[in-house]
């Protein structure tokens, strides 16, 4: 079975302005490198249109209307201090959500074994009622609801290894026993949430705060707790909020992973997914702001998905 790569060029038109860390080149370097692999084990797909009701499951209708009304005809519009919309953002944000839905369909229909979505803007900071941290729609949250509603699954796990806590994903699923949210992240750090005592109403949240300066062995050892929780939950599908900003060269955090650590981490997750959910897994890009580190890390991540 092959690995799907879901992406499209509309991300280029999401203009965040000069010197913004969440810029189009992030996805460009990833796509260009993956295309150079010319692997027969990669299946390239574009996102398809989807029923907007799935967006409404993850986000408040008033918030969705506010965002829709905020897309500018020219120039840029600030949803908050760091989350920016341009005229091209409307299509890019929808395609980012559409990518995870297309990836899920491909895995469920066995068109490919697993998938990686190379998209922007990222999503895991977007809460039910507000944008935050470069994120407009919570892509992975919509994907989880899609699995619950479209495919009638009862247990979906989200593993978020972005260096920043996914406050938005936690906010959306805090009282939903059908979704397990797990996050390893630098703490205390942006966005300020993700303390170990934030466990969800149904004990469906596991936060593992990591100190600045955390090294590879400490980071990977933390995943023993992740996998124990995952086994107890026994998910039918695993979604990855795949941020690569825990890399030692990333400018927005202070965790010290090497690029090839993402191969090791992904391989461990893949091994467990085979045991728990027949390898049903979709990964979607979140953070990662050093272009070279991001390109290398995603390469190792996808290499592991393909094996």
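^ structure tokens above, recovered residues below v
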């Amino acid at each position: 079975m092959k690995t799907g790569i879901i992406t499209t060029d509309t991300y280029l038109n999401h203009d965040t302005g000069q010197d913004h860390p969440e810029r189009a080149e992030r996805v460009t370097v990833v796509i260009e490198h993956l295309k150079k692999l010319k692997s027969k084990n990669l299946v390239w797909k574009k996102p398809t249109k989807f029923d907007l009701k799935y967006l409404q499951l993850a986000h408040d209708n008033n918030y969705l209307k506010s965002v829709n009304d905020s897309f500018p005809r020219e120039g840029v519009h600030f949803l908050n201090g760091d989350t920016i919309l341009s005229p091209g953002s409307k299509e890019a944000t929808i395609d980012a959500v559409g990518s995870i839905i297309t990836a899920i369909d491909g895995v469920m229909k066995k068109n490919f074994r697993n998938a990686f979505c190379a998209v922007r803007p990222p999503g895991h900071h977007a809460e039910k009622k507000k944008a935050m941290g470069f994120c407009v729609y919570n892509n992975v949250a919509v994907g989880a609801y899609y699995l619950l509603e479209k495919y009638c699954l009862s247990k979906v796990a989200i593993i978020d290894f972005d260096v920043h806590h996914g406050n938005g994903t936690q906010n959306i699923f805090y009282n939903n026993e059908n979704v397990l949210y797990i996050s390893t992240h630098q703490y205390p750090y942006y966005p300020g949430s993700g303390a170990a005592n934030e466990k969800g109403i149904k004990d469906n949240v596991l936060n593992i705060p990591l100190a600045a300066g955390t090294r590879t062995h400490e980071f990977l050892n933390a995943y023993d707790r992740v996998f124990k929780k995952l086994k107890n939950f026994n998910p039918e599908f695993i979604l990855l909020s795949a941020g690569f900003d825990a890399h030692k060269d990333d400018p927005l955090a202070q965790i010290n992973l090497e690029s090839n650590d993402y191969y090791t981490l992904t391989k461990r997750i893949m091994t467990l997914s085979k045991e728990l959910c027949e390898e049903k897994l979709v990964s979607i890009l979140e953070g990662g702001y050093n272009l070279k580190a991001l390109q290398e890390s995603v390469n190792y991540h996808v290499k592991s998905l393909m094996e």
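DSSP finds nine helices and ten strands in the chain.
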